[in-house]
Every structure is written in structure tokens, then in C-alpha cells.
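User: Run a structure prediction on this.
Assistant: Running it now.
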Amino acid sequence: TLVQDLFAHYLYSTRYDYARTLREATRALAATIQLDALLGHVGDALVSTLRSDGIAIYLLDSEDGEFRVTWNSVRSTSDPSISTTSPLVSILSEKRRLIFRDEMVAKDNEDHRTGLIADLYLLQAEVVVPLVEESEIIGFLVLGPKRSGDPYFSNDVDLLTTLANQTAVAVRNAQTHARVVQVNEEMQKVLETIESGVVAVGPRGRMTLFNRAAERLTGVS
């Protein structure tokens, strides 16, 4: 067992170039507006640098009032969802900083902290990093213990904090873009199927929208 632990420590030792990692992550996040792609960039960056035993990204599903897994380094069909009223989300909303399981276990076993510890064990999380955008928790990163057996050091905390801030902005932009695209697609479907002619004119007097019903009524293609 000792030999295996030493081998794991050597194999999974987390040494990385902090500035280079952030620079590459920033470039990757700026290169796409697609949510799945940018989550993949964030997840891959965390896997390659920290080498944690399981990394997951949770985002808020506002319709159901739950945080759901949207990216996971380990394939699973049973990822738990977390309610917006859970102790974990309450603490994240209050503190807006990283939560370490070891710190929570070491503190007094208060009722609300008991629920928080239960959430951390449910997620198999060694550390949880909130994604905060405009004072709102829109998601969080979940990282298991490092495969090397090392703790999370101060440079890891700095990396996770900075990357989480960048990710939150990128995620919000991607979600906004996706909603705009969805609304436009739904509007186009409606305009193509209704019998009323619809014409939209821009501020300079140029037509910006002209549906099929308007073509039939005016005889103009």
C-alpha cells in the first residue's frame, strides 16, 4: 500500500504553470459562445492541471429549481441534482467562496452544517467552487480529492477562483445567446405558419422582416 501511495503521488503530482493555464483557458473561453464547448474547455483544463478524482460542473435549471450536472469527467447515469434550497447552495450564496469538505467536517456539528456535509458527501466533493454572476449563484464546480493524495494548495485556490469568475461570465453569455437563438427560431416558426402578413421596418426605413403571408398578400417576393 505504501508503494502504491508513493507511486500515485509521483504519477499524479500536480505541477503546472499557473499563468499559462489561465491564459490558455481564457483564450478557449473567448473562442466559443456554445455552452457545451466552453464547459468542455473548463473541465479539460481542470482535469489536466489538478488531476482530481472526478470533476463535475453544475448549472442552474431555473424552471425546475435545481442545479444539474452539465459536464462530468466521469461518465455516470446517476449524477445527483441539488435543490436551490439545499444547505450547500445556501452556504455558497452566503459565502460566495470555495467550500472545502475537510474544513466543514472539522467544525462544530451544527444542524445546518450537518446538511452541508451530507451534500458534500453526496457529490463526493472535496471542494466546491461557486459560479457567481451578477450576485447570483448560476452554478458550481465540484472536485474530488487529488489522485496524488495532495491537498489543494493556495495556488490551486487562486486558479479555481479566477477560472470560476471567467467561467461564470462565459456561461451567462452562452446561455443568453442560446435563449436569443431559441426565441428567434420560435418566432420564425410562428411567422412562417400564421396567415397574417407581417412586415417589420427598421429605423432607416428598410424592411427587416417579410413573411410568406406578406408575400402572398402583396405579390412581392
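Residues 65 and 184 are 25 Å apart (CA to CA).
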